[in-house]
Specification:
Shape of chain A: globular
Oligomer: homodimer
Strand content of chain A: 15-25%
CATH architecture of the largest domain in chain A: 3-Layer(aba) Sandwich
Helix content of chain A: 25-40%
CATH class of the largest domain in chain A: Alpha Beta
Strand order of the largest sheet of chain A: 1-2-6-3-7-17
Largest sheet of chain A: 6 strands, mixed
Radius of gyration of chain A: 23 Å
Distance between the termini of chain A: 22 Å
Largest interface: A-B, 98 and 84 residues
């Protein structure tokens, strides 16, 4: 293979400049105000794919944000890789905690700083550049398709429908995704498990207006008091979820697999230091890796109600709200859990308030086999670039669409991600190390090579 | 006594015209933009006091809004009444819900409609007019002082200092206040109890940044989960406060007094309908009147943390906050309670998070005896005007300055208020019935007469 390292060295500055153009677009999918930016970002991807060597690329409007599809077909007899990524990003609040403008990328301390630098503009851009190298050097050993969506951070609602309607167009032998992390910069790993997700909003309503806490305090329902009481009843002192039937379908992971998991290096002191937490905390009887890898959890992601300004206001608010999420593991069904949790809160709601629970979205957990050509190709590519054999790991995060792909298209995914824990994705000061950026492009290019080779060996 | 009814009949139109001039001034104390209006309002009060017959009146600037003081000294041997009121009003938002301009008073359906019509321009104006009658008809049987502040709605901060510095000027035998309500237009009552108050802010901190709820969910402390758990532990299923020693100093009200309280009419269905709540809720074993009158309570006035925008964000926030308040009753000490609650939350704080509890402010509860010349005079005056003996009631609200007067000046207050629940104070469409306006002036005039008489009997 013609040297990818040389190619990167030669095009370094252009790569960064192109990525920065992408990062400058505030493509926050959850905010109505950014609807135009979503379209602009999709159009930029189309252009980028064509520039990189795609035969064709197209922006498909949806009821939400557009989907971009592009392809390069070398020959029908060759295997096909479908690259999936997303161009939408998370909101940036609290904006005051950012040390630089989230949409004005900079390079500092050998890292790129911007919203989306890792998740997932940075990582999916690497896919585009590895593809560009393979095309430009006439080395692409397989067909490649690109699928980019703008709703990954808000549930991928329109992508499912798009897949249903375009099964043939999206047909592939493997889906290649760079949207996950490695254990560490010197500890390559491949994500073989993802947790699922379910997300709700709860609203508790009392009186039809805010009331004076002196005149009414003690005699009328206080929606915040009640919301806190209700939420507190979802977990116990052992950090177990107490919602009935929540654990019913949870896979019991074998002692053998748990022993293997325990081999992945983990330093609790370093973990605490990195996050600046006083101590870890989680479900009794499980290690930190297990708590995020093979166990579900319950988190309140947001809460609000009443007076939140400076000083004091003696008020009993009319309403209080919370956003809650659970992470799910095999074989929990997100729709079933969605209903279980909704019913639970509706059931424990005191009769003197109105409680509305809305199931906002969910996604299924995913587990990938490690004996496939794709896994072996990814393993080999990482071993060459990082000089260390990667470990298969289960991640605590969710990419709901991965299990969706399997269900709708019947295609497995390989999660070849290059993020690091320190990238602060979804947080202020998201960043991405340049070393991971360049090594990743290299590894992806190698992946194509090995994948075509192993695939052929497997399908003679 | 020369007839007050006749005097009112004769001067009705002038009274309304003068009150309307006062109501037209948008003296919203909390808004910087109305600073000039506050000064104008204070000056108008000074003029009104002089016109009504005060020997002297003066506007005192403070670091906030001005204080007005006026007096009429008949003779050093006579008792002195200090009339307290406030000329500031609450903001008018939501302005779109007003049926008429809040600062262009009108009379409609035998009510005055304007911001401040009751609270407290209307009620304190009645004081000025009763005083005018007593002076003009040479019947004033005591010395009278007037104290009007412009910061009642924002905490009376500068009034306390003013009282400390002017103890002699403000010396009086009783403080007369018209800033409360009666049970109903046909059910006169005198407020003899006010609850105290203590107010805190709690902050729970986990990691030093927001974390991805997938990657970390289940393995690190979630500040919102923990805040809810902690707050839920402050009350039980019987709506009792579970914080140790919280009830230690609570006065046990005698069965006799509770029986008397139960005589005050109360319609729970009307109460629910008026507030549009599904049901009442409060401390087990107590009636609604008792819950707000003689029992303390715990209310979360505000809560916030994490993602509170549209849609979903899967985040474990770095911090979560709550503002909490308790209403206190005799003989709870707000400083002691301030410390008790702070210590409790610090004690139950899990070791894996940082919990900071800040005691923001407090005020003492107040109870007025009912065997004093002032109470008996108020009782008699109301009985004559309303043809019904007034009931002593305890209000759930706090007027911190009332216990402040007792502490600083050593003077008790008599709360001779003529507001009705339907007056919508602090809300859109504040109003004040003309019948209460005229009857109130009459009752205040009678109060002076009986107070001087009973005081003399008591101090022969």
């Amino acid at each position: 293979m013609q040297d990818i390292k040389e190619y990167i060295e030669l095009h370094k500055e252009r790569f960064l400049s192109e990525l920065f153009d992408l990062l400058r677009i505030p493509s926050i999918s959850s905010q109505e105000a950014n609807k135009k930016d979503m379209v602009a970002c999709a159009e930029q991807w189309k252009k980028m794919l064509l520039d990189a060597g795609a035969d064709a690329a197209q922006v498909f409007p949806t009821e939400g944000h557009p989907i971009v599809f592009g392809k390069k077909i070398i020959h029908a007899s060759l295997p096909t890789v479908l690259v999936y990524g997303h161009y939408d990003v998370m909101p940036v609040d609290p904006i005051e905690e950012w040390k630089s403008d989230p949409f004005e990328p900079i390079v500092k301390d050998d890292k790129i700083w911007a919203r989306g630098a890792d998740d997932d503009k940075g990582q999916s851009f690497m896919q585009a550049k590895a593809f560009e190298f393979m095309v430009n050097t006439n080395q692409l050993p397989c067909n490649v398709k690109f699928l980019l969506e703008g709703e990954e951070e808000i549930g991928s609602h329109n992508l499912y429908q798009f897949c249903e309607k375009n099964k043939e167009m999206l047909a592939a032998d493997i889906i290649l995704v760079s949207d996950t992390s490695m254990l560490a910069a010197d500890m390559p790993s491949i994500t073989v498990g993802l947790r699922g997700l379910a997300y709700w909003q709860i609203k508790v309503s009392g009186a039809d207006r805010d009331l004076h806490s002196g005149l009414y305090g003690g005699s009328v329902p206080n929606p915040i008091n009640i919301l806190c009481q209700m939420l507190a009843r979802a977990t116990d002192a052992y950090h177990r979820v107490t919602i009935p039937h929540f654990y019913d379908d949870v896979e019991t992971v074998s002692l053998a697999e748990r022993t293997l998991m325990a081999e992945a290096p983990f330093d609790v002191e370093e973990y605490k230091k990195e996050l600046n937490i006083r101590d870890i905390c989680g479900e009794f009887g499980y290690s930190t890796k297990e708590r995020t890898g093979i166990r579900p959890c319950f988190d309140i992601c947001g809460i609000w109600g009443g007076y939140t300004g400076e000083g004091t206001k003696t008020v009993i608010p009319s309403e209080a709200y919370a956003k809650i999420s659970t992470r799910l593991v095999p074989h929990q069904n997100f729709q079933k859990i969605g209903e279980t949790v909704k019913s639970y809160f509706e059931f424990i709601a005191p009769k003197y308030v109105k409680v509305e629970v809305e199931f906002l979205h969910g996604g299924a957990p995913y587990v990938s086999p490690i004996d496939t050509p794709a896994y072996k190709a990814a393993e080999k590519a990482l071993e060459i670039v990082y000089s260390k054999r990667p470990l298969p790991v289960r991640s605590g995060g969710s990419i709901p669409v991965i299990s969706g792909f399997e269900q709708i298209l019947g295609t497995k995914s390989i999660l070849l991600g290059f993020g690091l824990l320190s990238d602060a994705i979804h947080s202020p000061n998201e960043n991405y190390p340049l070393s991971q950026f360049y090594k990743g492009i290299e590894a992806i290019a190698l992946f194509y090579d090995y994948f075509a080779q192993y695939f052929k060996e497997n399908n003679p």
